[in-house]
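Our consortium's second objective concerns turning raw sequence data into structural hypotheses that experimental partners can test. To show how far this objective has progressed, the report includes one record in full. It was chosen at random from the queue rather than selected for favorable results. The single chain below, 489 residues long, was entered without modification.
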Amino acid sequence: MLSPDIPHDTEYASQLENPNGPVQQAWADSPENPFNWPKKKKWHIILVASLVTLLVGLNTTAIATPSHEIAEKFSVKDDSFPNSFWPITAWTTGAAFGPMVGLPLLENFGIRTGYLVVYTLFTLFVVPQAVVPNYATLIVIRAIAGALGGILQNAVELFIADTWLTDEERNLPITLFIFVYEAGVTLGPVFGAICSKLCWRWVFYIQLIIYGAFLPLLLLVIKETRGPVILAQCAKQDLELSRGASEAKRPPISTLFYEAIARPAYLLCTQPVVFFLMLWSAFCFGLVFISTQSIEQIYSTNYGFTAAESGLVQISLFIGEVVGFFACLPQNTYYQRSAARNSTNLGVPIPEARLPLSIPASLIGLAGGLFLYAWTSYPFLHWILPSVGLAFVGFGVMVIVTTAVMYLTDSYTKYAGSAIAAVAFGENMFAAWLPLATKRMYTVLGFQWASSLLGFVALALTLAPIILLFKGESIRKKSKFMNEASYIQ
C-alpha cells in the first residue's frame, strides 16, 4: 500500500487545498472541486475502486489452490524448493515496483484515464495467464500483471486523498481500503477452491469474465478526481480559474519520481519509527501469504484435506479481518476525541491515540492466534481449532496494518506518502519472499514449532506499539525530521 496522502506530498497539491494560495477562492468554492462533491458521489467512486482492489487481489493468490495441478502440467518439482510458489512471488514483486512508477504518472496527468488504461491492460494480461504454454512465461506474465495490479490497488488511496479533505473524513475510507486490500489476497485461495472442479485455466478465464463485465461500471462511475486536471479543464471556460491554473504549476516528473522512490528509501534507512513499523506491518501482511502454504501442508497432512478444501480454510482469516475492520471504527473515534486532551496542540488528535487497540491485537490476535494455530495442529484435534487460531491472526493483521498506516500518516504529515510507500514496499517484499521458506520451515521444525516461531516474532514486534504508546510523543519532539514533517510546529 502507498499513502492516503500521496497527492499532498507535493507543493502543487497543497496549493489546491489553500484558498489563500495561488489557486483562488473561486476554485475553493467551485462545485467542480472534488472536495466539494456530494458525499454520495464520492462514496460511489471509493466503493467501486475498493471493489476493484478486492477483485485484483484475487488474481494474486487464486493460483495458490491449483498450484500442484499447474506444477504437474509444466513438470515443476517442489521436492527441494517450493517452485510452485514462484507465480505469486513474481506477482507481489511486480506489485512492489509498479506503483512507484505508475502512481506519480496518475498524479501528474490525471487519474481517470490512466486508471482505466491500466485496468484494461491488467484485464488483457489475464488472458496469457490462462493460455500460457510454459512455466517461465507464466512467471514473467505474472510479474507484469502484478505491476499493473499494484497500481490499481493503490490508486484507491489517490481517490481518497483527492475527494476527502480532512483526516476525520478519510478515516473510514482508508480503513475500508485496507480491509479490501487484505481481503482480496486472503480470499484468493477461496476463489481458486470454488473453481477447483474445472481445469486450472478456468481460474483465470472466470477472472477475465468478471474483470471484463466490470469495465462498463468503471466507465460510468470513475470520474477525474485530480484537482489540477479538473482545474485545467475548467480554465478553458473560466477566465478567473484560468489565472489560478497558470499560477499553480505542475511539479516536474523527476520530482514526483523522487518522492515515490528516493524519499521512501531515505525514510526507511534513517527513521527508526518507519523501519520498525514497516517490519511490524510487513510481517503481518506476509503471514497472509505464508498461510497459503502452511494451511495446505497442515490440513492435508493432519486431516486429509484436498487442495480445494484447504483453500476454503482461508475464510477463517477473512472472518478475523471482518471483525478487525469493525474494531477499527471505534478506534478511529477514540483517535478523533484525543484532540480535546492534546495539551501541546489543542484541537489536533494525538498520533499515539491510534495505538491502544493494536497492542492487544498484536499480543492476543497475532501472537495468540499463531500459538493457538500451532498447538492445535494435531490430527487428534478437530480442524476447527487451528481455524479459530487463523481467525485471531486475521483480526490482528487487519488492526495492525491499519494502525501502522494511520500512525505514520499522522506522524509524517508532509511526507506521509513517502513513509507509507516504504512500508508498502516492505509488505510486498515480505509477501513475495517469506512464503518460499514456509514449506521447509514447517517440515524441519514441525507444525507446532514452525507456527510458534512466527508467534515469538509477533511477540517481539509488539514492542513497537508499546514503546510508541509511552514514548511516541517524546520521540516525535526529539526527531528533527518528524518535526519538519509536521504541518504544526
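The partners drew two points from this record. The chain is about 75% helix and 0% strand. The mean pLDDT is 87. Both points have been shared with the crystallography group to help prioritize constructs.
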